[in-house]
Request: fold
Amino acid sequence: MLRDTQGVATTHAVLPVEFVPIVARFTGGNTCEEIARLASNESGERIAVELVVRLATELEDGLFVDGAPYRQARARIEREFADADVRPASHAGGAYHGEPAKLSEYIEKECFGRTNGGPSEGRLLGLIAPHIDPWRGARCYGEAYGVLGQALPDDADTFVLFGTSHAPMREPFALCRKAFDTPLGRMEADKDSIDTIAAACDFDPYADQFNHKREHSLEFQAVFLRHLLG
Reply:
């Protein structure tokens, strides 16, 4: 199965395993005739050129091939995301409940309700929390954000979130100058702080901002912070 984690293609592509010798040669370095001949030699069975052409066409139309249709669609989606003030909750309704009441109940019962509830000691400066989906990471999220809930100063108004990018990046890190939407309400962006960080960078901190569109590692943290803050 081919899945576009950056959200340019809107569907998945499921291929029979015998198509692997064909698709593996879609590198831009061979014609369809050459691919048919090479794949036939590898598999020991004749693969028709028409099959290679049809497969290439369908994958290109589905935006799974790096060609003109994909580049046009990606440029449009990147532009729309860059212009938006809010980063939508792209995994709501899938990786966690999309309905506010159900989400709050799940966090309270299945996350916070299953923790040891031990008090934190000292001053909390940083927190390492999971970025697995909340269905499987419920207790880990509860332990982490339970401690944060106990240690959170009343005057805390800015949180700096670091997340893993599961897609390749060109620069060391990527800022996202947008509010993060959640089913529980938005987590607003502290644009003054973000601009200060950006000004101190000796590279373009927004070069990979598009990675934030489908990335879940910060989205999940925004959901739990929003719940904690009420």
